[in-house]
Specification:
This protein is mainly alpha-helical. It has one domain. Helix content is about 75%, strand content about 5%. The protein contains 7 helices and 3 strands. It has a 3-stranded antiparallel sheet. Strand 2 and strand 3 form a beta hairpin. The radius of gyration is 21 Å and the shape is elongated. It starts with a strand and ends with a helix.
Length: about 200
């Protein structure tokens, strides 16, 4: 018998599924699948680094240059989103039996959905922070090579807090959106099909 005790936890017989448990399972899953996790983080790091680079390098007021800047940014985010979605689809496909076991033990669809999205959000946060560091490093090196000691008068380091928050939010949103479809598929799978590893 399933009864919802509060918004913070679901109680299924003797088994209580809490958000803390979801995050713990997400970290465990990331450690088990370390190679794929690293590749996904690398994808997000590259996109976030390029985005930070574009936000901090000097830009021309020419409309053609601005359109080219927006096009580069859009293509970067599109490629990153496609890579993350592909990785999350493979991740979910390899976890069908695990998901089936969880559902047989009483995990609700919302629990499965939240666990996959939580895993992707952790990847997005780590990749975004690494990308910010990489992007600022590249910007500083290129700025020093082009402008020398006066680079800070050319580079756009104003409003860095806002820019950092934008990059982190975009990185986490990309991974969450990339994981949303495979997470929804996984949450709707009948337990016996999942145990057999079927879609």
């Amino acid at each position: 018998m399933i009864r919802k005790t509060s918004q913070a936890e679901w109680e299924i017989g003797e088994l209580a599924l809490k958000p803390g448990l979801v995050l713990s399972m997400a970290f465990s899953s990331l450690k088990i699948r370390l190679t794929r996790t690293f590749l996904t983080v690398l994808t997000i790091t590259t996109a976030s680094g390029f985005m930070m680079y574009l936000l901090t390098m000097p830009r021309s007021d020419d409309p053609v240059d601005r359109d080219g800047w927006l096009l580069m940014l859009g293509l970067c985010l599109l490629v990153c989103a496609a890579g993350v979605m592909n990785t999350m689809l493979m991740s979910v496909a390899q976890r069908y039996r695990e998901i089936g076991t969880m559902k047989c033990l009483g995990a609700l669809d919302s629990f499965v959905l939240f666990s996959v999205i939580a895993e992707s959000a952790i990847i997005g946060a780590v990749g975004s922070i690494a990308g910010i560091i990489l992007g600022l490093l590249i910007t500083t090196l290129i700025g020093a090579a082009e402008y020398g000691s006066g680079m800070f008068s050319y580079l756009r380091f104003d409003g860095m807090t806002v820019k950092i928050l934008i990059v982190i939010c975009v990185g986490m949103s990309l991974t969450a959106m990339g994981a949303s479809i495979p997470a929804w598929i996984a949450s709707k799978m009948p337990p016996m099909d999942a145990m057999r590893g079927e879609k």
